[in-house]
Amino acid sequence: MPSPAASSFQPLAGVRVLSLALNLPGPAALLRCRGMGATCVKLEPPAGDPMALYNKAAYAAMHEGIAVQAADLKTDAGQAQLHAELARTDVLLTSFRPSALGKLKLDWASLQSRHPSLCQVAIVGAPGARAEEPGHDLTYVAESGLVTGTELPPTLYADMGGALLAAGAVLQATLHARSAAGAKGIYLEVALNASADWLALPRTWGLTRPEGAVGGAHAGYRVYPCADGRVAVAALEPHFAARLCEAAGVAPPDMFATATREGIAAWFRTRTRAELDAMARERDVPLLTLAD
Predict the structure, then answer these.
(1) 131: closest CA among 107, 165, 161?
(2) Above 90 in pLDDT, residue 128?
(3) How many angstroms separate the CA atoms of 92 and 87, rounded?
(4) Residue 28's closest CA among 148, 129, 199, 156?
(5) Cβ distance 88 to 117 under 8 Å?
(6) Radius of gyration of the chain (CA)
(7) Cα 199 to chain center, whole Å?
(8) Contact 291, 231 (CB under 8 A)
(9) In this structure, what DSSP letter does residue 152 have?
């Protein structure tokens, strides 16, 4: 459990973040910033954020404590509203393509000339010249090798990973502003395909491929059926693996052997979730039982 001081630590206290970013990565990043103490404001187009249309609960969760205003940035009134906010903003968070930012006169050169101390964190799909390419979480995750069949991934890895990177970039911008070089703002780019690449590194290294230790080849790191559900077992270290094999009556424990995996699987099929939970507590084996 974190100490009270750690729990109340808010490194972005006193920092004002203005977001123009819609859908998932930007709002999720803004939520993280608010959790770190930032004052968070968001300008939405008159039609609102698409997330509010297709998942009201997600939208509400991400915008709790966020001051949301409507602004049509294509009008003079909307531009005036925007720049009034920017004049008292520390970090601007965007998720437009560079060409769209240019049309709104929100490219970095224009922002610097008008608001020299402002920092910008720009969420893009891909870095550099590829920032104009259309894409979404699924295309970025697929590019990173994390879509291995026709089933959709269970969560939005690139978007949520990108949100974490964007919140980290807001922290970087804040450190810059507080440094000796902070008289001028900085521009930081967060690419969603790069966030997917980062999350995919264990697979790139071979760890989570089928032949990898945490990809299914190790008998102590798998999901098995049990008598009334499933069990996710993570007995990876030798002492955990030995305890699991002892409980299952499988010896000696060669955790990459087919016989070991089959023996453990056969034993799990005869045990209920309650029995496995009790075994895990008694023998200190890392596992979690799951309903079907």
Answers:
(1) 107
(2) no
(3) 11
(4) 156
(5) no
(6) 24
(7) 9
(8) no
(9) P
Contact assessment for residue 105 and residue 80, using Cβ atoms and an 8 Å cutoff: no
Round to whole Å and give the CA distance between 149 and 248. Answer: 33
Question: Encoding tokens for residue 204?
Answer: 């790139």
Average pLDDT of the residues in 2-6:
63
Q: Is the separation of the CB atoms in 168 and 134 below 8 Å? A: no
Average pLDDT, the chain: 95
Could you tell me the sign of the dihedral formed by the alpha carbons of 57, 63, 64, 67, in that order?
negative
268 CB-side CA count, 13 A: 26
Question: How many Cβ atoms sit within 10 Å of the Cβ of residue 37?
Answer: 15
- Beta sheet of 67-70, edge-to-edge order: 67-70, 39-44, 16-19, 91-94, 119-124, 187-191
Nearest-angstrom CA–CA distance, 59 and 284: 40
Distances in Å between the Cα of 76 and the Cα atoms of 72, 86, 135, 233 are 9, 15, 30, 59
**Cα torsion 137, 143, 146, 148: sign:** positive
Sign for the CA dihedral angle at 111, 113, 119, 125 comes to: positive
| Whole-number Å distance between alpha carbons of 91 and 18 | 6
| CA dist list (Å): 198 to 160, 162, 201 | 12, 10, 5
8-state DSSP, 3: -
pLDDT of residue 251: 82
* 3-class secondary-structure state, position 135: coil
- Tell me what percent of the residues of the chain surpass a pLDDT of 70: 98
> 186 in helix, strand or coil?
coil
pLDDT at residue 4, as a whole number: 63
Q: What is the pLDDT of residue 48?
A: 95
Residue 117 clears pLDDT 80, i.e. is over it? yes
53-90 residue pLDDT tens: 999 999 999 999 999 999 999 999 999 999 999 999 99
